[in-house]
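Field: COMPLEX_INPUT
Field: COMPONENT_COUNT = two
Field: RESIDUE_TOTAL = 519
Field: MODE = joint
Values follow.
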Amino acid sequence: MKRLARHRRTLISAASLIGLVALWELALRLGWLPGNLVPLPSSIPAVLWAEIHDGIWLEVVLASLSHYSVGLAIGSVLGIAVGVAAALVPTFDAAQSWLARLLRPIPPLAWIPFAIIWFGVTETAAAFIISIGVFWINYFTSYSAVRAVDDGYYEVAQAFGQGRFTARLAKISLPAAAPGILGGLRAGLGQGWMTVVAAELFGIPGIGQRMMEASGLLATDVVVVYMLTIAALYALFDFLFMSIQRRALRWQN
Amino acid sequence: MAELTSPSPAADAVLSARGVRLGFAGDVVLDGVDLDVAPREFVAVVGASGVGKSTLLRALAGLLTPQHGEVHLSAAGEPASRAWSMVFQAPRLFPWRRVRANVELGLEGLGLSRAERRARAMAPLELVGLAPLAERWPRTLSGGQQQRVGIARALAVKPRVLFMDEPFSALDALTRQRLQGELAELRRRSDAAIVFVTHDIEEAVLLADRVVVLAKPDEHAPAGVRDIVTVDLPLDQRRGQAGFREYVQRLEQHIGVAATHEETPS
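Field: COMPLEX_OUTPUT
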């Protein structure tokens, strides 16, 4: 496929986005779309400002971030630990293999009933649901990444007196699998954020709950404000993570 | 074969093998291998491909357990050193460590401080001429430079025995020749005995004090030590010396006979 020059590509992408928003605005103003189903794009900045000014925006964003960070941390740490252990310890691998195959296809949201029974409609329940999706992504990528480590490196470790399990783990398995493990962390970062909103829809305070409230009042402009908030926050996390990842993997290309 | 090796371990040997049998599952690849390596001696092991040279090397180092027989390797010679180390066919540097940290690998866990490790790693890097590249990532080095780092990593632990598994076979001809010259020079500055596996007979005659020929007596039997040839030539400029070609031809004949057997299965 022919490649476009970078500035040209940026120009086309920006024009396309602006064009779509303009078309949307135009369609509403000319009455092609009913105004109660979608908000006017030009009304969004004022609504966002109102949400911020009333303190609601910060409150719900912080609430969501708190479930998100707890769920993300627990899911990532456990996922990587179990994935790496299964890849390195054959007995543990065998012990967890069928269990993982059974539980893995169950989507995080299917755990909502148990989350409510066990934790009630609480922040812990939201963090629990978020952690499940994050866990599986990290489990699977860490497992594959550690399994893919070249055996030759382990022979080198053995030849240079680093054959103990802990030495091999710290000096070979983890650094050699780091590109895969970090890729999993990044995917979990996205997956967890998507689950946050869904987990809050059943009444736990946060962005999701605010969106449900707004939709009940047909305040589509508020819904769009939070959709954009979700997108912007995700872009921020991903950007920050990418810069950490680039630094951690600077030994690669 | 028996008269070529001594029946009991030589008293001053840093490495002795007796009656070593090696194989995978039910297959015996090598059998009845006896070998003694004296301190600072350079022993090359040659043989056709698939004869079990690398497998023997790993068994001598203790990375593989023989099906039968014994291997005895001297303990480390001085504090903060290791009994043996190895240079592999591919350099196998850790791409996530800088050059110096790669050379430090074998020094970790020997009770050295960071500063001591660093100093110990820089000495062999200077020996192989790569001290200026100590802080580079391995991927920025050429194949020959990477293999030099592999050699520095092995020398850093001051081994009694240095095992080298076809270390130059993956390099282009020019680089190989240069590294062969450097290795001949390194020998003078290191106290390690060297066991060097190669399929290149000229390389063996060029570098070794003794050349061990592994070959199969016939195509169905496991390989063993067919001959041990002492190369009685001064180390300087061996390639140009009168006897060089005769040694090469003699060894080629030994390996060639076995190779013909392999190529004509009944």
